[in-house]
From TrEMBL:
Cross-referenced Pfam families: Phytase (PF02333)
GO molecular function: inositol hexakisphosphate 3-phosphatase activity
BPP domain: residues covered: 12-334
Membrane-crossing residue ranges in chain numbering: none
Species per Swiss-Prot/TrEMBL record: Seonamhaeicola marinus
Entries under InterPro entries matching the protein: 6-blade_b-propeller_TolB-like, B-propeller_Phytase
UniProt cross-references to Gene3D superfamilies, sorted A to Z: TolB, C-terminal domain
Coiled-coil regions listed: none
Protein known as: Phytase
Amino acid sequence: MKRILIIVGLVFVSCGKKLPVVAPNVITEKTLHDTDDPAIWINKNDASKSIVFGTDKNTEGGIYAFDLDGKIIEDKTIRGVKRPNNVDLEYGFQLNDSTQVDVIAFTERERKRIRLFSVPDMKPLDNGGFPVFKDAELPEADLPMGIALYKSPISKTLYAIVGRKTGPKEGYLYQYILLSDSLGVHAQLVRKFGEFSGKKEIEAIAVNDKEGIVYYSDEGHCIRKYHAEPSKGDKEIYCFGGEYFKEDIEGIAIAHYPKKSFLIVSNQQAGTFNIFDIKTNEFIKEINLGTTETDGCDVTTEPLGDKFPNGLFVSMNDDKTFFFHDLKKLSLIE
């Protein structure tokens, strides 16, 4: 009984107190409609020229490209996308025997498909898109929302793990292998996995490539944790953290340091972020970065030139912008 009382007290204090705002270094130019989820591409030749991609979630939406000053890079921006929801990025996709490319993948909800583009030349690799959830039976269960890419350290195979507007209590997520051959790139369903509480929906998905772990936000319930490698099975590893959120559990970002890694998760209606130890799943602290109703976020611990020498945290704000914080401001490590 004593332990339960302590937990309730922590949640009350966390959600009730007003935390000081950590001001952003940069606020991006506005998109046309409704920002949602970002992904950071690191330019390995010149990190100061890295790009932040962000979805603009609308029937006439797009994937915006921003430089590190928050300015829109028009020739890297993809427009005319039918309600793009979430976006993710991976490095070194094997396109053919001699070519590797970096890629972004994003969901296009109204066309019921996922898209795949090379970065930074922004060429489509998907022949118009890969249909998903083709066997869905429930209403809106074929409308993709969340997406995360996973590159297997074992096989170097690239996978897309995709969530949707609604779905069954078991097998809510679909995992597709992305394969390239002489005819192009193909997406093939390899498994259905992941429990769902049925309370709201599952949108935010993130993969810890180093450990081969999938995290996703079962909104209103908990952060769920599974193996990303299909061969390791579909059994849930852990369901945690729900007591630290005011209402919706949203965007997830993973920050890796040499000695410690962190899970940063949007506490949407509280206007804050909750930080967890990635190894123990323990709650560390809550921070206020000034955003409101944040859906998506992303992070890198790599220095990005003089502008962000300590790494970069990107989060969506509900005024059609993204906030850029130098990662040192989050005080993850001493």
